[in-house]
Amino acid sequence: MLNYTSIDDIENINSWIKEAQEIKANPLKNKDLGKNKTLGLLFFNSSLRTRLSTQKAALNLGMDPIVMNVSGDAWGIEFGDGTIMNGNTAEHIKEAAAVVSQYCDIIAVRAFPSLIDKEKDESEQILKSFVEFASVPIVSMESATGHPLQGLTDAITIAEFSTNKKPKVVLSWAPHIKALPHAVANSFTQAMHKMDVDFVIANPKGYNLNKKITKNTPVYHNQEEAFKDADFIYTKNWSSYESYGEVLDVENNWTITKDKIADAKFMHCLPVRRNVVVEDTVLDSDASLVIEQANNRTYAAQLVLKKILENA
Ligand code: CP
User: Fold this and answer.
1) Is 154 found in the same domain as 134?
2) Which of 45, 47, 130, 196 is the most buried (most CB within 10 A)?
């Protein structure tokens, strides 16, 4: 594997899950694989889990991670081709990506969407520019339209906690005070399409995700109906895709409660706003898998880095 920028880069999710479980059982087994190799982590946006778990994964493989908050600390990067750079940007991605490639053996990038310009967001300009102009493999740590490390983590977690051969998995929209990206929901959907699960999506009218990603997944606008007999309820807010980036008025209360989830396990990628997205009674109960998910972020990242190092 050269790059990991999408769930589509996973050829066989079941074998990947098995390999991740082996890594989890013995995280230091390949501690020499990344010796004298450097992982560069470039953040255009905030992070807690991705930042720490990806560094931890690199350390478990013997790599040296180096981290930069690009937006705050680097020169402003220009992505336009042929731009006369007499504005706020001081360095072109052509040089920036090539230069970081001199210091790093793998580059991981986090760059969120604007949620203003759908076409520009969907062009994945930042991630794709790194793929084009870097001379080393690129890993997405969440881009405008996808969060493949999170999607892989969620697949690993569902496999780990499933007691049914073919569990029912619901991706449910929940409220939030801000306009949030579609990346986590997109990658979760793509990961579920690769697994043997009964997968449905619940969201209010006006909040349907990109049909090119959801494909034939059943979409319910009635949360209660969608939750019937669910084994896993994966919750995430996202802004409207149809009215791009908008936060719409919603009928009914979509906050996740203990009564609503019944016997299902609760999942969320974190960070989560308590008592807005989900009530304390769910997060503080045995039904919640959020900490187990966060733990599995390390093994998902470690699996991806291992595959890239083995391919080098
Ligand atoms: N789930 C996730 O990606 O968390 P961070 O934004 O804190 O990295």
Assistant:
1) no
2) 130
Smallest CA-to-CA distance from 57 within 312, 311, 294 is with 294
Q: Quick one: which atom of ligand 1 is closest to the CA of 50?
A: 8
180 C-alpha to center of ligand 1: Å? 13
The CATH number of whichever domain residue 54 belongs to comes to 3.40.50.1370
Best mutation site among 269, 277, 292 for ligand 1 pocket (most ligand atoms within 8 Å of CB) = 269
Q: Are the beta carbons of 204 and 265 closer than 8 angstroms?
A: no
For tokens 């892989």, the residue is 152
Residues 201 and 218: beta-carbon distance below 8 Å:
yes
The domain of 68 spans: 7-144+296-311
Reported ipTM exceeds the 0.95 cut: yes
Phi, psi angles (nearest 5°) of residue 301: -65, -40
What pLDDT is attached to residue 312?
85
